[in-house]
Amino acid sequence: MKYLLAYDIGTTGVKTCLFGVEETFELLASAGRSYPLYVLPDGGAEQSGEDWWLGMCESTRELFSGTKVSPAEIAGISFCSQMQGLVLTDASGVPVRRPMSYMDQRAVEEIRKGIAYGIRIAGANIFKLLPSLVITGAVSSSVKDPLWKYKWVEAHEPENFARAAWWLDVKDYLVSRCTGRFTMTEDSAFATLLYDNRPGHEGWSGKMCSMFGVRRELLPPIIRSEDQAGELCPGAAGELGLAAGTPVFGGGGDSSLIGIGAGAVGIGDTHIYSGTSGWVSTVTDRRMADTSCMIAAITGARSGRFNYFAEMETAGKTLEWVKDHLALDEINIYLEKKDISQGYESTYRSLYDYMTETVKDVPPGSGGVIFTPWLHGNRCPFEDPDATGMFFGIRLETGKTEMIHAVLEGVFYHLRWMLECQDRKLKTSDPIRFVGGGALSPVSCQMLADITGRTIETVRSPQNAGAVGAAAVAAAGLGILPDLDCVRSFIPAAARYSPSAEKHRLYEPYYQTFRKIHSANRKLYKGLRK
To answer: Where is the signal peptide (predicted)?
Structure first.
């Protein structure tokens, strides 16, 4: 058996996973640490590179304190992480400012000056839109895209910007901290939307850099996800409690590796993810984009394959909001009754246990209450940083149970909306693999099946799909796997949920109303923001 260490760097915490690989990926041990997301009044969302690193160090040492596997037996290290962050570092790899999260939406003026002017299609200047679509297959038309974060720092923090030597994404920063080498995997390079992903042209695009005023010298060498980025250097090894010289692989972003960890690796395979954010992703072998719905085929972890990708900002994050602001007392009482330790993983699982227990008997439609899960704006199928969450349809008889149920329904209504938008360009699969923390609850899985009308499959430990994907690319890099196409045979379905035709019918009028809420309130959202 070969042993692999995978770091899953999320928005709310790091999960460190030890896998044994033989005929399957077996999770042998895991440990986690949470860290804060700093949400600022001006729309900023930042995290600390030191928080990420400290979380890795503490969770790694905890993991090995409870397993018989020694650090010297680890064949390789890999990463799965949140994407579309901006980590600007100096020449030695130290961030020049706190890293900006994918959720940061401060760059309103930068996107207006940079692309949202003149003759426009889908909000983007036609003379920048068309070259972008030709070269990258997508366009930087969201205020949350890394390009506009870069331009925001350039405009608002010139001293920090002048010190920058490297533009990295989250996991690429952590790889550099492990190895001392500065690289970026193909999927992270694509996420900058400065990467030419046309067959035979792969690499940083000088035209895109010039068109948007980006310093080309900040962009690091590009590697594949299964490539070895370097070896664990002695200093990092000492802090982590690992063996110096251990191979470190490029890994990938969550949007690339979670699908692999879900076993959705064949062309036409669709998976749905519900974690902090949420998405619908379908594997394709061609580039495509739907600018009207803000969907594009993004470069995946495998060369020549793309993920047709539709994302919402807050999915599981809405359940944290329920915990913190709507049902804190009830959840604390539930945890006390269950005698749950307050660890990162156990608290996460207990939240879903509580949700399941609370809403399992509420009928479809939550008594006429509809929740919009746009707690930090939205990307797809509409781009609106001003959009907000709301409960629509509250009556005198409405209680917390209906409201919590409506939160779950609202997330799944939005996922169905994105799924149907994908069907305009390609055929999504049935069954669909469902992963992330949202897939821990049988009630949630059945609700997703009933709302979408599709058969839903889950895998073992669905909340660890990203870490499984990270282990898979390391296994491919080490030659343990012949290629990533064979991953599905390692990841069978653990449960299957068939939709109820009757409940699907009952959900239909609520879903159609949900789809109309944003357009009916767009001007009001903007007015509230001002």
So the answer is: none
> Is residue 376 domain-shared with residue 323, that is, in the same domain?
yes
- Checking if the pLDDT of 336 tops 60, the result is no
The span from the CA of 314 to the CA of 35, in Å, is 18
CA dihedral 29, 433, 387, 87 (to 10 degrees): 40
- Whether 385 has a pLDDT exceeding 90, the answer reads no
Range of the domain at 56: 1-83+224-263+462-483
Whether residue 71 is preceded by a cis peptide bond, meaning omega within 30 degrees of 0, is: no
- For residue 213, being part of any structural domain is answered with yes
Has residue 517 been placed in a domain? yes
Residue 113: give its domain's CATH number. Answer: 3.30.420.40
Tell me, what DSSP letter sits at residue 395?
-
Interhelix angle 442-452/501-529, nearest 10 degrees: 90
Element containing residue 30 per DSSP (H, E)? strand 25-34
Would you state the pLDDT for residue 226?
95
> 10 Å Cβ neighbour count for 233?
16
Tell me how far CA of residue 514 lies from CA of 360, 438, 470, in angstroms: 21, 20, 36
Torsion of CA 432, 436, 440, 445, to 10 degrees: -30
**Strand 38-39, strand 45-46: pairing:** antiparallel
Q: Give pLDDT tens digits for 264-319.
A: 999 999 999 998 889 999 999 998 989 889 898 989 888 788 999 999 989 988 98
Q: Could you report the per-residue pLDDT of 413-427, keeping only the tens digit for each?
A: 999 999 999 999 999
3-state secondary structure of 365: coil
Nearest to 185 by CA among 53, 289, 277, 303: 303
Q: Is residue 303 part of a domain?
A: no
Report the distance separating Cα 344 and Cα 491, nearest Å.
25
Residue at 399 is within a domain: yes
Residues 436 and 342 in one domain: yes
